[in-house]
Please model this.
Amino acid sequence: MKTNIQTALAILVASWAGCVLADGEPTELVPLASADAGWRVSVGVRAAPKLKTKATAGATAALAKAGRVKAASAGGPSAAGGTVTETSESTTTEDGGTETSGTTKDEAKAASGYKDGVTRYDFDNGYIDLEDAAGQPGQTTNWHFDDAGAFDATGLSVSGTKNYEETKKTKTRTRKTKTTKTKETTVADSAARSSFRETFADGPADSGSEHAEGLEIQIGRLVYENESFGVEANAGYTLYKDVDCFSAGGRVYTGRASASRGSVETKTTTTTQTDVTETTTTTTESGSFATVLSQPEFTDLDDIRNPDGSIGGASYDGQPVQTGWTTAILTVTPDRFSVVANPGASSTSTESATTEGTPETATSTSRSPGASVSRSRAVDVRSTGELSLQELRLGASPFWKAADWLRVKADLGLVGSHAEVETHTTVLADGSAVWSKRHSDDEWNLQGYAGLSVAVLPTDGLELAAGAEARFPKRKIRFDDGIVSGSTELPSWDAFVSVGIRF
Model:
């Protein structure tokens, strides 16, 4: 919202400086002592209270943007008669549970690895029993495999096989329901009814009194001085912080229109049929795990093979060693174990059986108002305003030296104020915006000012000042965005504090 006025500031200050300066020296009304500081630059805060604002929203203009409710028509009674059939289907599935039989894959895998504290391992093709006559930890002669194929001459290892075959039967029940609704509608009477109602309200308004504060920069030049009195010329620029000057909102219109024709009788026939399908899915998975024990000591199959083609044989099946059988020592330690998975085949089969339900029929009759139409409309207005203010001032300050460190000043001059009011207005119909606009009005105003201030000089180069001024005549800025209009008064007086450097 800020309007750039640096160019205007430069022109005004240059004009003032040309009048005040003569070859860079103060105007010689009375010769000044060479030690006196002729220039002053001050920075301070200026506050302007009681900026009064009045704003009013035009209800008629807002309604023109949103529109009024339209009259309703229900049509003829014949529109209500007829037959309508609706069909819907729904399906639900229930879990009947799962049955598992046989040796599972996880069970076979768990029985294939090394286990602390286990002294016997049983496989589908043999066994290993750590209990033998020798009693050497980690070694045994009490082991046997049915076939020499359990020995891998290339990898120098023996393998025990653990087979698995797991069968799962999963049952589900699917219930399919088909519903058919037939509605027969007839007009019982043709009496017509209608209504139309509107409520208008004045446009929302807001009024308030805000204050503004801003940063000021001022330049002063001493043009006359004697032992007790002096005159200083001043130029300054003030930039005020934006002020939220009003916020107005409210409902300006409510309208409702309705129309109905005929009393309607509806006969509804509902037919429901439910079919149940029971499904059994059978899944079979088979395979094996090989428990491989590394035996680098077995370099020749003939050293461990028995006459019947098996390997190992000490106390086979709890019997004494048979004639001609080997008594090879098998090393059974954790580092010798490894498990190899050999996936097998899997198959799935599904069986279903369907049971058809008996249709169920229900009939109901209802009477309700016939064809009807209803419309409504609610119109609201929301608006906010923001004031931006900048000032340029030129003036003179005759002063009296109450003491070497204290000056009492009379401040006189002109102040040019640039004020801008930006409005943001929205018209809503049924809660939704149908029109929105940002609009700004700005103008320059010229006022005179007169006031008193006190300056304290702690040192020759430092000045602390405070004062207040009255402005005349009163001025205001008017604004109008087509919906909301009003005015904001410009400051009628203000006060300031500042810190200045004298040189």
Remarks:
- The longest helix spans residues 6-20.
